[in-house]
Protein backbone atom coordinates (compact mmCIF):
# COMPACT_ATOMS: atom_id res chain seq x y z
CA UNK A 1 0.00 0.00 0.00
CA UNK A 2 1.43 3.33 -1.02
CA UNK A 3 1.94 6.38 1.20
CA UNK A 4 -0.93 8.24 -0.46
CA UNK A 5 -3.37 5.44 0.29
CA UNK A 6 -2.21 5.22 3.91
CA UNK A 7 -2.65 8.97 4.32
CA UNK A 8 -6.18 8.80 2.92
CA UNK A 9 -7.10 5.95 5.28
CA UNK A 10 -5.58 7.83 8.21
CA UNK A 11 -7.59 10.94 7.34
CA UNK A 12 -10.79 8.91 7.04
CA UNK A 13 -10.07 7.32 10.41
CA UNK A 14 -9.46 10.72 11.98
CA UNK A 15 -12.68 12.10 10.52
CA UNK A 16 -14.56 9.06 11.85
CA UNK A 17 -13.11 9.58 15.34
CA UNK A 18 -14.02 13.26 15.26
CA UNK A 19 -17.56 12.52 14.13
CA UNK A 20 -17.93 9.84 16.81
CA UNK A 21 -16.70 12.26 19.46
CA UNK A 22 -19.14 14.93 18.25
CA UNK A 23 -22.02 12.44 18.39
CA UNK A 24 -21.09 11.34 21.90
CA UNK A 25 -20.73 14.92 23.13
CA UNK A 26 -24.02 15.82 21.43
CA UNK A 27 -25.76 12.92 23.14
CA UNK A 28 -24.35 13.94 26.52
CA UNK A 29 -25.44 17.53 25.92
CA UNK A 30 -28.94 16.35 24.98
CA UNK A 31 -29.22 14.22 28.12
CA UNK A 32 -28.06 17.08 30.34
CA UNK A 33 -29.97 19.83 28.52
CA UNK A 34 -33.32 18.03 28.69
CA UNK A 35 -32.65 16.28 32.01
CA UNK A 36 -33.15 12.88 30.42
CA UNK A 37 -33.68 9.91 32.74
CA UNK A 38 -32.33 7.15 30.50
CA UNK A 39 -33.75 4.13 32.41
CA UNK A 40 -37.23 5.64 32.17
CA UNK A 41 -37.16 5.53 28.37
CA UNK A 42 -36.82 1.75 28.47
CA UNK A 43 -39.32 0.98 31.23
CA UNK A 44 -43.07 0.38 31.12
CA UNK A 45 -45.50 2.99 32.52
CA UNK A 46 -45.99 2.78 36.27
CA UNK A 47 -49.14 3.20 38.32
CA UNK A 48 -50.45 6.79 38.46
CA UNK A 49 -49.28 8.48 41.66
CA UNK A 50 -51.24 11.54 42.81
CA UNK A 51 -50.62 13.90 45.69
CA UNK A 52 -54.15 15.14 46.34
CA UNK A 53 -55.10 18.36 48.14
CA UNK A 54 -51.63 19.82 48.50
CA UNK A 55 -52.04 23.25 50.13
CA UNK A 56 -50.36 26.02 48.18
CA UNK A 57 -51.90 29.07 49.82
CA UNK A 58 -54.14 30.10 52.72
CA UNK A 59 -56.54 33.04 52.37
CA UNK A 60 -58.73 34.30 55.23
CA UNK A 61 -58.32 30.98 57.00
CA UNK A 62 -59.17 28.92 53.91
CA UNK A 63 -56.63 26.52 52.42
CA UNK A 64 -56.39 26.49 48.64
CA UNK A 65 -55.19 23.21 47.23
CA UNK A 66 -53.80 21.52 44.15
CA UNK A 67 -53.63 17.91 42.95
CA UNK A 68 -50.25 16.81 41.65
CA UNK A 69 -50.26 13.95 39.12
CA UNK A 70 -46.76 12.56 38.78
CA UNK A 71 -45.50 11.13 35.47
CA UNK A 72 -46.39 7.51 34.85
CA UNK A 73 -43.15 7.32 32.87
CA UNK A 74 -40.18 9.01 34.51
CA UNK A 75 -38.54 10.18 31.29
CA UNK A 76 -36.81 13.17 32.90
CA UNK A 77 -34.92 13.67 36.14
CA UNK A 78 -36.86 16.95 36.46
CA UNK A 79 -40.26 16.70 34.83
CA UNK A 80 -41.76 19.33 32.54
CA UNK A 81 -45.03 20.40 34.16
CA UNK A 82 -48.47 21.33 32.88
CA UNK A 83 -50.65 23.34 35.28
CA UNK A 84 -54.40 23.10 34.71
CA UNK A 85 -57.08 25.69 35.55
CA UNK A 86 -60.64 24.38 35.39
CA UNK A 87 -63.55 26.10 33.69
CA UNK A 88 -67.00 26.94 35.03
CA UNK A 89 -67.66 30.64 34.36
CA UNK A 90 -65.46 31.59 37.34
CA UNK A 91 -68.37 30.71 39.65
CA UNK A 92 -68.37 26.90 39.53
CA UNK A 93 -66.21 23.88 38.75
CA UNK A 94 -63.42 22.22 40.69
CA UNK A 95 -59.92 20.86 40.35
CA UNK A 96 -61.25 17.31 40.19
CA UNK A 97 -60.33 15.66 36.90
CA UNK A 98 -63.22 13.61 35.50
CA UNK A 99 -61.68 13.15 32.07
CA UNK A 100 -58.28 11.60 31.50
CA UNK A 101 -57.65 13.68 28.37
CA UNK A 102 -55.51 16.22 30.18
CA UNK A 103 -54.00 13.98 32.83
CA UNK A 104 -52.96 11.46 30.14
CA UNK A 105 -50.02 13.71 29.33
CA UNK A 106 -48.26 12.06 32.28
CA UNK A 107 -47.52 9.22 29.86
CA UNK A 108 -45.22 11.64 28.05
CA UNK A 109 -43.14 12.25 31.15
CA UNK A 110 -44.98 15.39 32.23
CA UNK A 111 -46.24 16.20 35.69
CA UNK A 112 -49.82 17.49 35.66
CA UNK A 113 -51.14 19.81 38.36
CA UNK A 114 -54.80 20.77 38.77
CA UNK A 115 -55.41 23.96 40.75
CA UNK A 116 -58.24 25.08 43.02
CA UNK A 117 -58.96 28.82 43.00
CA UNK A 118 -61.57 31.03 44.63
CA UNK A 119 -64.85 31.30 42.76
CA UNK A 120 -67.09 34.35 42.44
CA UNK A 121 -69.36 33.21 45.27
CA UNK A 122 -66.32 32.70 47.51
CA UNK A 123 -65.20 36.33 47.29
CA UNK A 124 -63.20 35.18 44.33
CA UNK A 125 -64.08 37.90 41.86
CA UNK A 126 -61.46 39.89 40.08
CA UNK A 127 -58.55 39.84 40.80
CA UNK A 128 -58.76 37.03 43.40
CA UNK A 129 -59.03 34.14 40.94
CA UNK A 130 -56.02 35.38 38.98
CA UNK A 131 -54.08 36.06 42.18
CA UNK A 132 -54.68 32.48 43.29
CA UNK A 133 -53.60 30.95 40.00
CA UNK A 134 -50.45 33.06 39.83
CA UNK A 135 -49.59 32.07 43.39
CA UNK A 136 -50.16 28.41 42.52
CA UNK A 137 -47.53 28.71 39.77
CA UNK A 138 -45.18 30.47 42.19
CA UNK A 139 -45.67 27.69 44.73
CA UNK A 140 -44.83 25.06 42.12
CA UNK A 141 -41.67 26.91 41.11
CA UNK A 142 -40.62 27.54 44.72
CA UNK A 143 -41.05 23.85 45.54
CA UNK A 144 -39.54 22.52 42.32
CA UNK A 145 -37.01 20.36 44.21
CA UNK A 146 -39.67 18.65 46.31
CA UNK A 147 -41.95 18.13 43.31
CA UNK A 148 -39.04 17.05 41.10
CA UNK A 149 -40.16 19.36 38.33
CA UNK A 150 -38.19 21.50 35.91
CA UNK A 151 -38.97 25.11 36.84
CA UNK A 152 -37.90 26.22 33.36
CA UNK A 153 -40.48 24.00 31.64
CA UNK A 154 -43.82 25.01 33.12
CA UNK A 155 -46.84 25.23 30.83
CA UNK A 156 -50.46 26.17 31.55
CA UNK A 157 -53.71 24.82 30.16
CA UNK A 158 -57.41 25.50 30.58
CA UNK A 159 -60.78 25.48 28.88
CA UNK A 160 -63.44 28.21 28.90
CA UNK A 161 -62.83 30.34 32.03
CA UNK A 162 -59.75 28.21 32.61
CA UNK A 163 -58.59 29.10 29.12
CA UNK A 164 -58.85 32.79 29.93
CA UNK A 165 -56.81 32.19 33.09
CA UNK A 166 -54.24 30.19 31.13
CA UNK A 167 -53.81 33.04 28.65
CA UNK A 168 -53.51 35.63 31.40
CA UNK A 169 -50.87 33.60 33.25
CA UNK A 170 -48.87 33.29 30.03
CA UNK A 171 -49.25 36.92 29.02
CA UNK A 172 -49.06 38.80 32.30
CA UNK A 173 -49.11 36.35 35.19
CA UNK A 174 -46.44 38.03 37.29
CA UNK A 175 -48.63 41.10 37.77
CA UNK A 176 -51.02 39.00 39.89
CA UNK A 177 -50.65 37.36 43.27
CA UNK A 178 -51.50 38.09 46.89
CA UNK A 179 -49.54 35.65 49.07
CA UNK A 180 -46.78 37.41 51.01
CA UNK A 181 -44.85 34.14 51.25
CA UNK A 182 -44.68 33.87 47.47
CA UNK A 183 -44.43 37.49 46.33
CA UNK A 184 -40.70 37.34 45.59
CA UNK A 185 -41.05 34.37 43.23
CA UNK A 186 -41.15 35.35 39.57
CA UNK A 187 -42.09 32.80 36.93
CA UNK A 188 -41.95 32.38 33.19
CA UNK A 189 -44.48 30.26 31.35
CA UNK A 190 -43.00 28.18 28.54
CA UNK A 191 -46.25 27.67 26.62
CA UNK A 192 -50.02 27.88 27.06
CA UNK A 193 -53.10 26.00 25.84
CA UNK A 194 -56.44 27.83 25.76
CA UNK A 195 -59.56 26.00 24.63
CA UNK A 196 -62.81 27.88 23.86
CA UNK A 197 -61.50 30.79 25.93
CA UNK A 198 -63.07 34.25 26.33
CA UNK A 199 -60.49 36.88 25.42
CA UNK A 200 -62.26 40.27 25.52
CA UNK A 201 -64.56 41.26 28.37
CA UNK A 202 -65.19 44.72 26.93
CA UNK A 203 -66.61 43.51 23.64
CA UNK A 204 -69.91 41.67 24.01
CA UNK A 205 -71.16 42.75 20.59
CA UNK A 206 -69.92 39.39 19.29
CA UNK A 207 -72.99 37.81 20.92
CA UNK A 208 -75.61 37.82 18.19
CA UNK A 209 -78.43 36.80 20.53
CA UNK A 210 -79.53 39.55 22.92
CA UNK A 211 -80.34 37.11 25.73
CA UNK A 212 -76.87 35.56 25.47
CA UNK A 213 -75.34 39.04 25.51
CA UNK A 214 -77.31 40.03 28.59
CA UNK A 215 -76.41 36.77 30.37
CA UNK A 216 -72.72 37.34 29.65
CA UNK A 217 -72.97 40.92 30.90
CA UNK A 218 -74.59 39.74 34.14
CA UNK A 219 -71.94 37.08 34.65
CA UNK A 220 -69.15 39.61 34.20
CA UNK A 221 -70.86 42.14 36.45
CA UNK A 222 -70.79 39.56 39.23
CA UNK A 223 -67.16 38.73 38.47
CA UNK A 224 -65.95 42.32 38.51
CA UNK A 225 -68.42 43.76 41.00
CA UNK A 226 -70.09 46.06 38.50
CA UNK A 227 -70.47 47.09 34.88
CA UNK A 228 -67.66 47.88 32.43
CA UNK A 229 -68.60 51.55 32.73
CA UNK A 230 -67.76 51.37 36.44
CA UNK A 231 -64.73 49.05 36.22
CA UNK A 232 -63.39 49.51 32.70
CA UNK A 233 -59.75 49.23 33.81
CA UNK A 234 -60.39 45.90 35.52
CA UNK A 235 -62.32 44.50 32.56
CA UNK A 236 -59.43 45.49 30.32
CA UNK A 237 -56.70 44.21 32.66
CA UNK A 238 -58.31 40.76 32.81
CA UNK A 239 -58.90 40.48 29.05
CA UNK A 240 -56.15 38.53 27.26
CA UNK A 241 -56.59 40.52 24.06
CA UNK A 242 -55.39 43.69 25.80
CA UNK A 243 -52.36 41.94 27.26
CA UNK A 244 -50.87 40.76 23.97
CA UNK A 245 -47.14 41.36 23.52
CA UNK A 246 -44.52 39.95 21.18
CA UNK A 247 -42.45 38.34 23.96
CA UNK A 248 -45.34 36.10 25.02
CA UNK A 249 -44.73 32.32 25.00
CA UNK A 250 -46.15 30.06 22.28
CA UNK A 251 -49.91 29.54 22.53
CA UNK A 252 -52.21 26.79 21.29
CA UNK A 253 -55.86 27.74 20.78
CA UNK A 254 -58.93 25.80 19.63
CA UNK A 255 -62.50 27.06 19.37
CA UNK A 256 -65.76 25.76 17.93
CA UNK A 257 -67.49 27.80 15.25
CA UNK A 258 -70.89 27.06 16.81
CA UNK A 259 -69.88 27.94 20.37
CA UNK A 260 -72.93 29.59 21.95
CA UNK A 261 -71.19 30.32 25.28
CA UNK A 262 -68.09 32.11 23.99
CA UNK A 263 -68.49 33.25 20.37
CA UNK A 264 -65.69 32.15 18.07
CA UNK A 265 -65.19 35.81 17.08
CA UNK A 266 -63.37 36.26 20.42
CA UNK A 267 -60.78 33.68 19.40
CA UNK A 268 -60.56 35.06 15.86
CA UNK A 269 -59.87 38.56 17.13
CA UNK A 270 -57.26 37.43 19.64
CA UNK A 271 -55.47 35.33 17.04
CA UNK A 272 -55.33 38.13 14.48
CA UNK A 273 -53.97 40.64 16.97
CA UNK A 274 -51.50 38.16 18.46
CA UNK A 275 -50.05 37.26 15.07
CA UNK A 276 -49.83 40.94 14.15
CA UNK A 277 -47.89 41.55 17.37
CA UNK A 278 -45.42 38.83 16.45
CA UNK A 279 -46.63 36.11 18.82
CA UNK A 280 -46.35 32.42 17.99
CA UNK A 281 -49.91 31.05 17.99
CA UNK A 282 -51.32 27.76 16.74
CA UNK A 283 -55.07 28.23 16.20
CA UNK A 284 -57.53 25.51 15.22
CA UNK A 285 -61.05 26.56 14.35
CA UNK A 286 -63.34 23.55 14.71
CA UNK A 287 -66.23 23.69 12.27
CA UNK A 288 -69.70 22.69 13.51
CA UNK A 289 -68.48 22.39 17.13
CA UNK A 290 -70.05 23.89 20.26
CA UNK A 291 -68.44 25.02 23.52
CA UNK A 292 -67.54 21.43 24.39
CA UNK A 293 -66.29 20.62 20.89
CA UNK A 294 -69.34 18.48 20.22
CA UNK A 295 -71.32 18.52 17.00
CA UNK A 296 -74.36 20.79 17.08
CA UNK A 297 -76.46 18.60 14.78
CA UNK A 298 -75.38 15.06 15.56
CA UNK A 299 -72.97 15.10 12.64
CA UNK A 300 -69.22 15.48 12.60
CA UNK A 301 -66.85 18.29 13.44
CA UNK A 302 -63.94 19.35 11.27
CA UNK A 303 -61.36 18.54 12.42
CA UNK A 304 -62.47 15.84 14.84
CA UNK A 305 -61.99 16.24 18.58
CA UNK A 306 -59.37 13.48 18.53
CA UNK A 307 -57.45 15.34 15.83
CA UNK A 308 -57.51 18.54 17.89
CA UNK A 309 -56.21 16.67 20.94
CA UNK A 310 -53.46 15.06 18.86
CA UNK A 311 -52.41 18.50 17.62
CA UNK A 312 -52.46 19.80 21.18
CA UNK A 313 -50.22 16.97 22.38
CA UNK A 314 -47.79 17.56 19.53
CA UNK A 315 -47.69 21.22 20.48
CA UNK A 316 -46.92 20.32 24.11
CA UNK A 317 -44.19 17.89 23.12
CA UNK A 318 -42.50 20.45 20.90
CA UNK A 319 -43.00 23.57 23.03
CA UNK A 320 -42.90 22.22 26.58
CA UNK A 321 -40.71 19.13 26.45
CA UNK A 322 -38.16 20.05 23.78
Helix content: 25-40%
Strand order of the largest sheet: 1-2-4-3-5-6-7-8
How much is the radius of gyration in Å? 23 Å
The number of helical elements comes to: 9
N→C terminal distance: 49 Å
- Could you give the count of β-strands? 8
**Mean pLDDT value:** 92
Largest sheet: 8 strands, mixed
Order of helices and strands: HEEEHEHHEHEHHEHEH
Shape: globular
Uncertain segments of ≥5 residues (pLDDT<50)? none
Structural class: alpha/beta
Strand content: 15-25%
Task: Please name the defining characteristics of this protein.
single chain, 322 residues, alpha/beta, eight-stranded mixed β-sheet, 36% helix
Please give the structural blueprint.
Layout: H1 3-33, E1 50-59, E2 62-69, E3 79-85, H2 100-103, E4 111-115, H3 128-142, H4 144-147, E5 149-159, H5 161-172, E6 191-195, H6 210-224, H7 232-237, E7 251-256, H8 264-276, E8 281-286, H9 305-321
Task: Please explain how this structure is put together.
- It is a single chain.
- By secondary structure, the chain is an alpha/beta fold.
- It is 36% helix and 18% strand.
- It has 9 helices and 8 strands.
- The longest helix is centred in the N-terminal third of the chain and has 31 residues, at 3-33.
- It starts with a helix and ends with a helix.
Amino acid sequence: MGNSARKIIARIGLIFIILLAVCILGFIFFVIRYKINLPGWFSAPSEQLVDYDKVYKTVDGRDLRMDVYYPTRKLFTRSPTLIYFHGGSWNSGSKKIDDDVFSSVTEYGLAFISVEYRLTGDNGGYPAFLDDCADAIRFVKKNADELQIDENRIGVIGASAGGQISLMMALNGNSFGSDENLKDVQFKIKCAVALCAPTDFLNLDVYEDQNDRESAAQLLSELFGGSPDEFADDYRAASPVYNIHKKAPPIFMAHGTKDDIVPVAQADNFYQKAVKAGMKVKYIKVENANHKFKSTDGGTTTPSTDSVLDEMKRFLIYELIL
